[in-house]
Write a structure and sequence with these properties.
Length: 227
């Protein structure tokens, strides 16, 4: 989780100059009988219409999990319809003068062991997206803090060493927590002063207050305790 799978899918679609269709499994669910299968068919029809296209299904395990004997009939029909549509794309040949639609299927999941064997056979190319390494985490810190005023004592190497196994979302939470520190310091000064001019300059003072290395240390300590 939080390793940028959706962003990578967008990058793939853009690099291939294809129409990117991002699908949430919840959008394919319906309480009406037969509607979910129609939505799946409509999704692939849309992919063919806007060919070349890339259909990206996030959290595919919630849609195509392993089938079981006590599974609801409507869920089984949706999976069958999905498999049929994928087979139709893979098996398209067309006549010599016919333009065959190019539809690429991408999917992401944090629980690959929950997927049905049938979808694993159809989506043969599998890419593991690991947690960011040291260099990647340093780059993430630089990107997320590029528009924020920092003190000169920020030790990125220390931050990288102490954020092992952090994903991008974790690093963003850490940066947000540290970014709140200057605001807290200024608000603490307000509680000790009663000066109208000081209050008028409050916004500028908060914006000019830099984030220090100690702010990150406290934020790290707070996240660890919170976990």
């Amino acid at each position: 989780p939080g390793t940028g799978k959706t962003m990578l899918a967008k990058a793939i679609a853009t690099t291939g100059k294809t129409t990117f269709i991002n699908v949430n499994p919840a959008a394919l669910a319906s309480k009406w009988r037969g509607d979910s299968e129609k939505l799946v068919r409509l999704l692939f029809d849309m992919g063919r219409y806007y060919s070349p296209s890339t259909i990206f299904i996030d959290e595919i395990d919630s849609l195509l999990s392993e089938r079981s004997s006590n599974e609801h009939e409507s869920s089984r029909k949706v999976k069958t319809q999905f498999f049929t549509e994928i087979d139709g794309i893979n098996g398209s040949t067309g006549a010599e003068d016919e333009v065959v639609p190019k539809v690429f299927i991408l999917a992401a999941t944090n629980r690959p062991w929950d997927l049905d064997d049938a979808i694993l056979r159809r989506l043969t190319k599998r890419v593991y997206i690991p947690l960011p390494d040291d260099e990647s985490r340093k780059r993430l810190f630089e990107l997320k803090l590029r528009n924020i005023k920092l003190a000169n004592d920020i030790d990125f190497e220390h931050l990288v060493r102490n954020t092992d196994r952090y994903n991008s979302d974790d690093i963003e939470s850490l940066c947000r927590e540290a970014a709140n520190a200057p605001f807290k310091r200024v608000m603490n000064q307000i509680s000790q002063q009663n000066n109208t001019q000081f209050l008028q300059d409050l916004e500028q003072q908060i914006l000019s207050e830099p984030i220090t290395n100690e702010d990150f240390v406290k934020a790290l300590r707070g996240l660890v305790v919170g976990n």
